[in-house]
């Protein structure tokens, strides 16, 4: 199949999922075309089956906001014609599903039919998409998609609750390439980050309010009072500076390392003992799954789709949003005995296996095939 993929090329989870999906589809013999404003961060290998087409938005002084949707839909039309793309898979509804629909209509004028698969990732439905300023257009573009998927049961339920959706929604969860995490690093270089008696706690995100970064710091503060520990904070975003300030106020700045965005997530997870994800809302929690795949147990909130990934008492523990005391208590209960920690590490890895890329990507292939068949029969 010739598949077009539209996504955000940045460090966000939707872009990571789209990129890993495209790479795997190309390995399975499909021709994949990424169409976005920058080469996706995890797309290192452009091969004969993987292509990247940059969307440029020329600046003009009249524009207060640059018309990205317009440039994207134009590029989609041009690339669909040039490369005879058969199906377009857009990740994150805003504004991708909308731009895809415009492209589809423009192509129809020329007798070309381009089916659209839209994957809903989270905030495009919960925090952003349901805002009254966007809702009408988001509802429209979901209903105009030829197939719609969501990354968890929880997100599917949120979509049905918040929007007047007429389409069927198929749940296709986030996934992980287990082979990248198993024995990938023989030498984690743990000694560079902490001494032998210290435990390493990790948080990875885009440091937005929804991630509840102060909770991460407070949980760590409680842990280090009882167990020698270091905290690794990976990512960039508006909450990073206040977090650095909070560490100073609590007098723990020497125990906390802020890495910024990193392409070495696997290496950081390799030396981690515990992952903390106290999010206000989280449609799935790909970061938690990546941690589990590296054998790192997870302390998380129980919001959104997290309970579909992090299993209570097995891969870690879940608490109500904001219950820092319960999260701290649970973290300490995992970390204080080596035998308990080893047990949770092994269990986290086993749970992660359920989301192996080789189980999930065929589900997308089946959806593409069914969508193509359905659309052809309507022509
Ligand atoms: O976590 C983020 O805020 C980034 C965001 C994105 O769309 O880039 O992530 C969302 O999509 C991920 C991949 O499907 C999910 O694993 C995350 O849970 C989801 N984030 C939220 O719902 C807050």
UniProtKB/TrEMBL annotation:
InterPro entries: Glyco_trans_1, Glyco_trans_4-like_N, Glycosyltransferase_grp1, Thiol_BshA. One of its GO terms (biological process) is bacillithiol biosynthetic process. One of its GO terms (molecular function) is glycosyltransferase activity. Residues 196-349 form the Glycosyl transferase family domain. This is N-acetyl-alpha-D-glucosaminyl L-malate synthase BshA. Coiled coil: none annotated. It comes from Formosa maritima. PANTHER family: SULFOQUINOVOSYL TRANSFERASE SQD2 (PTHR45947). It comes from the Bacteria. Residues 11-179 form the Glycosyltransferase subfamily 4-like N-terminal domain.
């Amino acid at each position: 199949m010739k598949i077009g993929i539209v996504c955000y090329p940045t460090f966000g989870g939707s872009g990571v999922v789209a990129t890993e999906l495209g790479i795997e589809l190309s390995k399975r013999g499909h021709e994949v075309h990424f169409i976005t404003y920058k080469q996706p961060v995890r797309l290192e290998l452009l091969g004969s089956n993987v292509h990247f087409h940059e969307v440029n938005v020329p600046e003009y002084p009249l524009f207060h906001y640059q018309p990205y949707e317009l440039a994207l839909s134009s590029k989609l039309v041009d690339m669909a014609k040039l490369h005879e793309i058969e199906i377009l898979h857009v990740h994150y509804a805003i504004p991708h599903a909308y731009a895809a629909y415009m492209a589809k209509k423009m192509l129809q004028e020329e007798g070309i039919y381009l089916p659209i698969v839209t994957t809903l990732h989270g905030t495009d439905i919960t925090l952003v998409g349901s805002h009254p300023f966007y809702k009408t257009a988001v509802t429209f573009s979901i209903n105009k998609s030829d197939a719609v998927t969501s990354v968890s049961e929880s997100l599917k339920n949120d979509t049905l609750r918040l929007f007047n959706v007429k389409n069927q929604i198929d749940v296709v969860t986030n996934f992980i390439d287990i082979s990248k995490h198993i024995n990938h690093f023989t030498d984690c270089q743990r000694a560079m980050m902490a001494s032998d008696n210290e435990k390493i706690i990790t948080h990875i995100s885009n440091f937005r309010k929804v991630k509840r970064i102060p909770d991460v710091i407070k949980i760590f503060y409680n842990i280090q009072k009882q167990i020698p520990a270091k905290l690794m904070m990976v990512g960039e975003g508006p909450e990073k500076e206040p977090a650095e300030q909070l560490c100073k106020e609590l007098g723990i700045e020497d125990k906390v390392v802020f890495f910024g965005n990193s392409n070495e997530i696997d290496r950081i997870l390799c030396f981690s003992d515990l992952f903390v994800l106290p999010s206000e809302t989280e449609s799935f929690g790909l970061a938690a799954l990546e941690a589990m795949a590296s054998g790192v147990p997870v302390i998380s909130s129980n919001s959104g789709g997290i309970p579909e990934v992090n299993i209570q008492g097995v891969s870690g523990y879940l608490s109500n949003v904001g219950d820092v005391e319960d999260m701290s208590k649970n973290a300490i209960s995992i970390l204080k005995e080596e035998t308990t920690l080893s047990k949770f590490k092994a269990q986290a890895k086993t749970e992660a296996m359920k989301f192996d890329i080789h189980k999930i990507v065929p589900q997308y292939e089946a959806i593409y095939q069914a969508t193509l068949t359905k659309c052809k029969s309507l022509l």
